[in-house]
Each structure stands twice: as structure tokens, then as C-alpha cells.
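Feature request disguised as a bug: please show the residue count (241) next to DUF3108 domain-containing protein in the output. Example input:
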Amino acid sequence: MANWLKRVGLAAGISAALAGMVRAEEAQFDLVLRGITAGSLSWSGAGDPGGDYAVRGVLKTSGFAALLKKVRYDATAKGRIAADGTYSATRYAEDADTGKRQSQSVMIWEQGVPRIESYKPERKAKPWDVDPTSQKGTVDPLTAMYAVLRDVAPGKECNRDLAMFDGRRSSKLLLGAPKAEGSQVVCAGEYRRVAGFSPDDMAEKTSFPFTLTYAPGADGKMRVVEVAMDTLYGKARLVRE
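Example output, currently without the count:
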């Protein structure tokens, strides 16, 4: 992965961006599936409204789950955050292994419109493919994750509506209004498949509800401590370490 990122000129750029931004954040989550730790999600990023952001994320299965199905996702993203907190992606690189397929891709945004710079291995066009030029204003999956999971000031939790495009598929990430539960804040959300998925995938499931739980951090900000979600493999949780 590192060698591949260097070839597309991203590894050094992301590292330099993270090192040069004062407000760097990082988080580690355990992926718990049906009560068993099945993997981990980690990310590190930096960026504030009115400036640029850079983030890297890694998701992988572990333990018994990895014996059944190895899944790995390693990605980097860069872009800009507007003064109102709106994210605009500029570049995204992904190295993924879903257990069914392995792929590497690079995508850039020009004037808000994504363009696929490379996708390996090459594949034949599908009837349900999404035209990237129709995806103006979208962000990549890692940018969406970063926007949702990073620490926020009290009162800024939840209330997100993000349109995503990963180079092949378009989807939506929605977060509703915050609800106070003691010192914590909970919001209901939904991941929704929109287009670019096979007919079988769309027939299988299009809506994946989840809940996001925030708790006060040591720095006075609210941080996501748990994500509880429905998956194709049953109930799952991301629990912050």
C-alpha cells in the first residue's frame, strides 16, 4: 500500500499535511459483530473550517472473523472545509479487499466534479454504472466518515446530509437531530444505497440504519464513542477504545 501511494504521489503529501496542521485528531474503534470483536477501524486527520483537511483511514477484520472473510480498506483523502463546515473533496485514494474483490483507485474532484484517475484492475462497464460527471458535490467515503466521526463542539453533533461517490457507486449518509441522554448525545442515522449497485445488491437491501453516540471528551468536545448499525451480517457496533 505504501509503495502504491508513493507512486501516485499521495503518501508524502498526506503525511506532510497532517504534520503541518496543529489540530490533528486520531481515533481507534473495535468492530464488534454479534458480540465478538471482528476487526478494527482507525483514522487520523486534521482540518478546520475555512482551511484544508487531510485524513487517512484503515479498516480490517481480525481474529476469527478474518479466518472467515478477510476485509481490508486503506484510504487517504484531501479537501477543504468551508466556513460553515461543508466538506469538499479534492483527492481520494483507496486500496480495498472486500473478500470478493481487490481494487486500487484514485479519484480527483475538479470544480466539485469527480474524475476517476485510475482504477485497478480494469473492469468492463456495467449497465448500472454511475457517470462520475453526474456526481458534482459528492465526497468520498473516507471524507464522509471523517466528517461524521470527528470530535465536535457541544451543540454541533449530528445533523449531517452527505452525498458520497466511491468511483463506481453513489450513496447517502444521513444523520438526524441530536437527542440528549444524560451527559451523552445520540442521533439516528442511515446509510442508503442510491445507484451503481448491482440489481441483486439493491434487491438485497438499500437502507442501513445506525445510531451514533457522543460523550464528553477530556478537552470539552463531544466525541463519538459508539456506532451501532445494521449490516448484512447482523447487528454490529464500532466501540471507541
